[in-house]
Amino acid sequence: MTVTLDHGSLGCVLRGAHDPTRGVVQFRGIRYATVPRRFAAAQRLDQPISSSSETLDCTEFGPRCPQVQIDVGHLLRLPSNHVLPVEPEDEFACLNLDVCAPEGCLAPFPSSEHTRLPVLIWVHGGSQAMTFGSSASKVCDMTKIVSDSARLGAPIIAVSVQYRLNVFAHGDDKASKNLALSDQDLAIQWVHKHIAGFGGDPENITLAGESAGAVHCHAHLVTARTSGTSSLIKQCMLLSGSLALSPPQPRVVIDALRDKVSAELQELDSSLNLDNAPVDIMVEALRKSGIHSWFLESEDRFDHWQERVFSQRLLVSDVQFESVLWRNGIWAASTESILEAFDLSETPYSHLETKLKQAYGISSDRPSACKLGALDFINDCKFLLPAERLAEQQQQQQQKNDPPRAFRCIIDELNPWQPSHGAHHAVDLVLLFGGFDEQMTASGALKTGRELRKRFIRFINGSDPWNGDEVAAFGPYGMYQELDRGGEELGMRRRMDRLDVLREFGDGKVLDDVFLRLARGRISLLN
Predict the structure, then answer these.
(1) Do residues 512 and 504 touch, judged by C-beta distance below 8 A?
(2) Alpha-carbon torsion 14, 19, 22, 26, what sign?
(3) Bridge partners of 125?
(4) In which element (H, E) is residue 160 found?
(5) pTM, to two decimals
(6) Is 211 a catalytic residue?
(7) Residue 230: its pLDDT value, please?
């Protein structure tokens, strides 16, 4: 079914998709910005069509950024009979978003700010290389969380954002830096300006993302004062990621990635370069380059990002087995290469090398334990410790009797289709958004998904999702608990004792070097 909405600030009528069973409407593929040419800074689009008498069709999802095709169902262990849609791609029309709202937004628009709905802006992940979790794929379809919010009496509006990725987000040294981040800035500004026309509250925006999406969200918090979005983001949710996962890199690193793609282009056709190559040839060069991860580029506005605290409330989560992304790569590595990665002899922390190796079972005479320990180290160094530090830094700024500024949770529900895969990276997307609930028979996962949505909806509405002095634990087997931060059970669920060892390394730059030696070239979504 379709519906129409006469949108004031956009100056046109929108035709959207209506799901009466769930009581939601979706306005899909709305362009929030234009890309004048490859690698150019985008320009916000506030009037999607030239004539107010026309109707803008928003019933189909918009195109995503061109990318190497990856089966997202592999990591998620989606049933083999589930066929993911083929999503259109367009490097110049990929700056679009989807607005999902309770069907009540079609009533006369709330005139009072007190009746407008809180807004969630979702930034997908995918190693800054691909789209892991679009609305079209159902992985991050906002329908269920919006439907549940209305059912719970705490309705929200959710916006999913597409943005430029991989080489298309990185021009040469004459182009604007960090095009993906700039694209998202424009999307945030667009939402602030136009969301009231959907019944949303422009002064009550929660920014959220998972994995690389969380990296970008953290970056927005750090750079908000310089980008102009400082007052636009009221609170933020970081799921399985932060800038610690993928810190900004110097220009030389970005150039090396671009040069690798450029070299593959030359192999395909010596007349082509990054500026003039047809998009399909660019994607083929990307595929041949074997680059699976991209990075933000260092800028002055990122300086001292590790020490920043924010006025916004934070919700920070991780899952039990984040390092699954490197599993195949680590298992294929030799024991010798892992031992070399942990060599600290040329660092100021050489005296801690033995202690670090013992903490993670890095030993030449136990190859399997050594590889498992390397995965545990990646998990703790890039996910667990940063999540703990972010929450701690926010709480340290909290004055006595102030409301909590950080909420910490862990997600330990097993994969519903292959429990032996564990509570792995990105399984929280399956649980939180419930896009595949109809294909799920695991009652524990269904129960955990409902609890996640309920608690996150509370946070988006400005309430405390749980006791801020405790850590919320979702799963396994559908359980929900609130754990003491220094308690025994949290220590059994996470390697909290190992964090004491990692904290001895100060700012963590040495640990980052260990991680890079371990992980470089070994990440894959096909784990």
Answers:
(1) no
(2) negative
(3) 132
(4) strand 157-161
(5) 0.96
(6) yes
(7) 63
What is the DSSP code string of 371-430?
HHHHHHHHHIIIIIHHHHHHHHHHHHTPPTTPPPSEEEEEE-PPPSS-GGG-SBTTHHHH
Measure the CA–CA gap between 10 and 46, rounded to whole angstroms: 6
Give 249's strand partners.
Answer: 297
Q: Exposure string (b/e) for 46-59, b if CB count within 10 Å is 16 or more?
A: eebbeeeeeebebb
Whether the CA torsion 519, 521, 525, 527 is positive or negative: it is: negative
Nearest-angstrom CA–CA distance, 30 and 37: 19
Query: Which of 134, 160, 211, 289 is the catalytic position?
Result: 211
Structure tokens of 189?
Answer: 């500004």
| pLDDT 10s digits, 435-458 | 999 888 888 999 999 999 999 999
Cα 276 from Cα 132, distance rounded (Å): 27
The burial of 292, by beta-carbon neighbours within 10 Å (0-12 exposed, 13-18 middle, 19 or more buried), is given as buried
Task: Spell out, as residue ranges, where the chain has pLDDT lower than 50.
Answer: 110-111
Burial class for 143, CB neighbours closer than 10 Å (0-12, 13-18, 19+)? buried
